[in-house]
Amino acid sequence: MLRHTLIVALVIGGFLSFIAAFDSGHLPFATRTLLMVGIAWTASLMGAAAFAVVERSAWVRGAWWRVGLAGAALMFAPMGLVVWCGVRLAAPPQGDPPVTAIPGFIGVSFVTSLFFCMVVAWFQSRAAHGPQAGTPAPPKFLERLPLKLRGAEVWAVEAEDHYLRLHTSKGQDLILMRLADAVAELEGIEGLQVHRSWWVARDAIVDARRGDGRATLTLKDGVQVPVSRTYAGELRARGWI
What we know:
- By secondary structure, the chain is α+β, with helices and mostly antiparallel strands.
- The protein has two domains: 128 residues, no CATH class; 98 residues, CATH 2.40.50.1020.
- 47% of the residues lie in helices and 19% in strands.
- The chain has a five-stranded antiparallel sheet with strand order 3-2-1-5-4.
- It starts with a helix and ends with a helix.
């Protein structure tokens, strides 16, 4: 992120040099470019530092405009001083700006800092809440949940004849489907088939007991799930029982 910011600052500094900003047209191009890039990089580092401080504050969480406003509040005054110093270094023909001109530079810096901080904060918010590259798609099985169970955690799936009984954080319901197909579509949720009639999510298990050569899992809703010998070895290997 910082590398990209500095690259953008390099481009901005080159543009400022090209248009001879801050009455710097009398300077040689190389000198002018070095000065403008230095100002742009300083502004970028100030902005990055301001955002790093602001985003740690609980006051700004969840509101991009608060991040932008607070970032601008932190950087506009020192940035105004940086620009004033930059103009003095440029040694404009009409003479160096006096100390009394500093408030004017700070005022202009407030407007520009506010604009750019708001834009950066908005883009960062969009990036944080938008789809992330490489993020796995949710398990397809979740699309099959009845409306009353949408958004629920799937705790277990139990085969009942040609139907499946869904055990979820929002209750139970039946859907018409084979258990083998459901297990395939539950890929992405940490869970295992523990019996020819049961699939269980790891997070749904609150207790596991073994007795008489058999194991039983207790789910969050109190349902008891049998573990067959066929699947017991895999559960032991994973530390579930």
